[in-house]
Amino acid sequence: MAKWLVVGISDQKIAFSPDKLVSYALGSCVGVCIYDRKLRVAGLAHILLPNSKESLHCPVNPCKYADTAIEKLVAGMEAAGCRRQRLTAKISGGANMFDIPGPSIGEKNVEAVKLKLLSLKIDIVAADVGGNHGRTLIFDSVSGKLEIKSLFHGNKII
Predict the structure, then answer these.
(1) How far does the chain reach from its first CA to its final CA, in angstroms?
(2) Mind listing the pLDDT tens digit for each residue in 44-69?
(3) Is 82 known to be catalytic?
(4) What's the total number of domains in the chain?
(5) Catalytic-labelled residue, pool 29, 33, 63, 82
(6) In the 8-state DSSP scheme, what is residue 15?
């Protein structure tokens, strides 16, 4: 029987088939879903902010920031037997939740996630980002499918 593992804000988890990862109510946060199809291993990071170098807090929670969370998630997946060249990513979230001038925190998060995945040579195979609505993510370790639920924008699978 599959377990549902909840990934909170500034957290990450790795799931093995047949388990699922779920992250609730992403607004400007970005959910980074990384998958190894051969081993059916799924990882999900719920990223709050783009860059740990801008933090005034010590010690830094590495799961909070795009630059450190993705590295930690990939390292954990590799420790579980995944191979970097088999990893693919799906991303969702990064909404503009507040009407403020300039780039929103959601846009900055999405850009930081894309840059980090590019630097690690992990392809983004699907994305559902931006807008002004929250999302709940359900990542299936069996299929690699990412279900995205939104109260006013319906559900989709990528």
Answers:
(1) 24
(2) 999 999 999 877 666 679 999 999 99
(3) no
(4) 1
(5) 29
(6) E
